Amino acid sequence: MSDERVSLLRARIRDVPNFPKDGILFKDITPLLADVEAFRACIELMAERLDGEAVHAVVGIESRGFMFGAALADKLGVGFVPVRKPGKLPAASYRAEYDLEYGSDAVEIHQDALERGDRVVVVDDLIATGGTALATKELVQRCRAEVAAFVFLINLVDLDGVAKLAPSRVIAILDY
Ligand code: AMP
User: Is residue 64 annotated as a catalytic residue, yes or no?
Assistant: First the structure.
């Protein structure tokens, strides 16, 4: 995409080799968050790419998905629903297990977070293997809602996580 905003975002992502373990090239989005122009451009691009998709809520994945997801929810004029690491949500929750690029984990959602038939946008900073996003889709479906689209700032293309989410719509602002 030859948008100046995309170049700005790319310039505000810092590569940190061997974090959190050897062999991982960590994509650090904190410089982007700290730059008001870049952060705004990022949320604008996400909203534009959704192109009027009618949604009832934004579901953000802990913890970097909260930052982008909450801002996007505000921009779209809908509520925000957190998907959290195990044991963090206070009320009755559903849980889904998944494998990470580094380790394994689970995610949870409040059982009453969504209404039956709701269409939601699931947001995270980055898709690697797609395991976290797929587990989140399972949680949305357990709530009898559906994923209208996934939105990621970064797609690590070689790991092919997007294929795991088929046939859902997947939007990524930056491919690496
Ligand atoms: P995955 O489930 O493999 O798609 O992993 C996605 C989750 O892990 C996201 O919440 C990312 O924030 C995090 N993650 C995985 N790989 C990286 C990476 N190379 N740089 C930054 N975050 C990563």
Answer: yes
CA distances from 69 to 24, 38, 150 (A): 25, 15, 11
**CATH number, domain at 127?**
3.40.50.2020
| Cβ–ligand 1 contact at 101 (below 6 Å) | yes
What's the pLDDT at 2? 59
Per residue in 149-164, pLDDT (tens digit) is 999 999 999 999 999 9
The CB of 108 under 6 Å from ligand 1? The reply is no
pLDDT of residue 35: 98
Determine if ligand 1 sits within 6 Å of the CB of residue 60.
no
Number of domains in the chain: 1
Q: What is the pTM of this model?
A: 0.96
Q: Is the dihedral of CA 71, 93, 87, 20 positive or negative?
A: negative
